[in-house]
Amino acid sequence: MKIILGMIGVGSAFLASHVNAQATAADRIPDTMEARVQACTGCHGAQGRGVENVYFPRLAGKPAGYLYNQLVAFRDGRRKYVPMNYLLAYLPDDYLMRMAEHFASLNPPPLVQPAVQRSPEQVRAGQRIVTQGIPAKKIPACVTCHGAELGGREPGIPGLLGLRADYVSAQLGAWRFGVRTALAPDCMQLIASSLSEPEVAAVSAYLASLPVTAARPLRQPGMKLPLACGSQPQKGGQP
Prior knowledge:
Layout: H1 2-27, H2 33-36, H3 38-44, H4 64-76, H5 82-88, H6 93-104, H7 120-132, H8 142-146, H9 165-176, H10 187-194, H11 197-209
Helix pairs in contact: 4-5, 4-6, 7-11, 9-10, 9-11
């Protein structure tokens, strides 16, 4: 009898262990990059799509090189925003590149941003800067680098659609005052520091007024830009 009870006890323990193992396997989160970047969705939305009427930008579809540069900049403190600095503090370069490539590969439908409450005159002034630049200040048109449809340019220039006016204004301000810096030579710091406050407001208003499309980054390797930019390799591999 003792032998039989012992065998039953061993069998029960084995069964319980087997059931627990199955439950653990079923509950285990898949080890995929999609699962690992769930921490990003609270601010940047599912699949990096963005969140309607929220400050934080869309990540999906932006060039991998651009996203990687921003992740490294946050980690190394060249771009300052405490939650991002904290989250990325100990992540190595290769892992940040994998994150960047993940978001760059996504293409969820764009969100429609709310209408911009700015004067028509301010929006038109922003349109002139974005499409024609400011020759007197030697500031090139935004479309020269970011593309005619403002969808960005591979590998390191982001799209500018679907961004709130206050976000665009804040980023230009961050460049102007050194809170945000890019790889040298930092072309955006040069451009932003040459803009006046009204010009920053106009550019922000115009970009935010544009309809959001699914424009993808242009692929034109080695295209010469009007300014040298450390984030965008040009002919001969030199910025």
